Amino acid sequence: MFIPIGDEPNPPQRPVMTVALIAVNVAVYLLISLPLSMRPADPADPLVAEFLRSVPQGMPAQQVSVYDLVVFRYGFRVAAPSWIALFTSMFLHAGLLHVLGNMLYLWIFGNNVEARLGPLWFLFWYLVTGVAALAFHAAFNLGSPVPLVGASGAISGVLGFYLVWFPRNVVKIWVFLFPFYIGVVRWGAIWVLGIYLLLDNLLPFLIAPTASGVAHGAHIGGFVAGMAAAWTMRGRARSQ
């Protein structure tokens, strides 16, 4: 098990927008996702039948939660895209580990990128690369009725910025390989993010894009969009 737990060096500025995005995502999970996932949906609701038709494997109507319907309505569906879902889908998550993993990456890599862009431009590019991630996903999943949720496409955009602007930074990784090694190692950001892009996403995307249920295409699309934007602004974004 390899889990990033920090990076260095870090900017002196407070990552106001990074913290705000983390707070919003966590609040949505705690106040909406978690309580609604414990409430069963009304089987007579017409949206339940529509939702069940989109589920790849069969699912009894009695197991559908109110949050399933929220995801179906506000997650991004390629077969029924909407402008609002482009953005609401970025703030919905499938579970606790999903939101915690995404927020960990945003916390580690967001502060450096925000310090260079400024809070408002950071928010702008976070949303833009998130939309680019959904567009890339849609291009390879035409007609898919399955809703896509999560901040990972937008966060991948942040990682793309980070790779271009801070390739020499060091990322601290907690390694758990019991009984051989348990501890923290330091790897160059270029290696950590290269592994994220190539081994964690591009390879699974090429071999079995739908096998894991992870939207690897969205991660790739967001990452490449972030890299492209960072290259375009190289030398023009404000210094750290």
Verbal overview:
This protein has 240 residues and is mainly alpha-helical. It has one domain. It has 9 helices and 3 strands, in the order βαααααααββαα. It has helices spanning 16-37, 46-54, 66-74, 83-88, 96-117, 119-139, 152-165, 189-207, 216-233, and strands at residues 2-8, 170-177, 181-188. A 3-stranded antiparallel sheet has the order 1-2-3. It is globular and about 55 Å long. The mean pLDDT is 91.
Task: Break the fold down into its secondary structure elements and pairings.
Elements lengths: L1 E7 L7 H22 L8 H9 L11 H9 L8 H6 L7 H22 L1 H21 L12 H14 L4 E8 L3 E8 H19 L8 H18 L7
Q: How would you state the average pLDDT, rounded? A: 91
User: Percent of residues in beta strands?
Assistant: 5-15%
* SS class: mainly alpha
Give the tally of structural domains: 1
Question: How would you classify the quaternary structure?
Answer: single chain
Summarize the structure.
The chain is built from nine helices and three strands, in the order βαααααααββαα.
Keywords:
240 residues; mainly alpha
